[in-house]
Amino acid sequence: MPLSDSPPPLSAKQLAAQARCAAMVAHARAQIMAVGVDRFSVNEVLRRAGGSKATLAKYFGDRNGLIAAAIREEALGAMAALNLDSDESRAEPLDGALARALAGVLRFYLSAGSLALYRAVISAAPSGAGGAEAFYAHGHRVIVDAIAGLLAARQPLQVRAELDCADAADQLLHAIRAGLYERALLGMAEAAGDDAIDARIAATLALVLPGIAPPPNA
Fold first, then answer.
1. CATH number of the structural domain spanning residue 92
2. C-alpha span between 110 and 5 (Å, rounded)
3. Could you count the other beta carbons within 10 Å of the beta carbon of residue 129?
4. For residue 32, is it within any domain?
5. Does 218 map to a domain?
6. Which end of the chain is more exposed for a tag (fewer CB within 10 A), N or C?
7. Which of 177, 160, 169, 164 is CA-nearest to residue 212?
8. Are residues 94 and 84 in contact, defined by beta-carbon separation less than 8 angstroms?
9. Residues 6+ apart with CB under 8 A from 189
10. How many domains are contained in the chain?
11. Rounded to an integer, what distance in angstroms lies between the CA atom of residue 84 and that of residue 142?
C-alpha cells in the first residue's frame, strides 16, 4: 500500500487539548478587546475556558504568550476577511487591490475594540509587561506581512522588482493612520464613515503609488 503524506488522526486527548487551547484564545481575544492588555486577567480566561495554569504554561508559555496568540488570531481574522489571496484579488489592478485592502485594514484599526486595545498597549508599555511586544510582533507584523504579500505577488509587472515589500507595507500602514486614525485614537473624532476612510486611502495612494509602481517605460 502507498504511504500517505497525511498526518495521523488526532487522539481524543489531543482533540480535547486543541479545543481547550482554542477556547482559551477565544476568551482571551474577547477580554483583550473589551478591557485591553493592562487589565487582562489570566484567571478570568481560565474561569471561562476551563483548564489550569499548567495547561496555559504548556501551550502558551505565560500570560504574554496567551496575549500574543489572541492578538495574532484577531489580526489573522481581519486579514482573512479581506480575501487578499483569492484569484479575484490577484486579478485586480494594483491601485484597486491596495485601495480595498488598506480600506479594510483602516476599518479594523478604527473599530472600537482595536482603538481600546491600542490605547491600553500604549498606556501599559512603560511597565514592561510584554503586551507591547506581543501587539507589535503578532498584530502589526501580521498585517504588514499580508500587505507585503499583496505587493510581492505583483512584482515585477505592477510593483518595482527592487522594492522592499515589507518595508513598503510598513510605511503604507503608518501612512493610512495619519490624521483620521490619530484623531480617533485621541478621542478627538467620532467614528469615521466609509467616505472619510476612502478619502484617507485615496490620498495615501496618490502619494505613494508613484514610488511603488515601475516607471511607465520599464
1. 1.10.357
2. 43
3. 17
4. no
5. no
6. N
7. 160
8. no
9. 180, 183
10. 1
11. 13
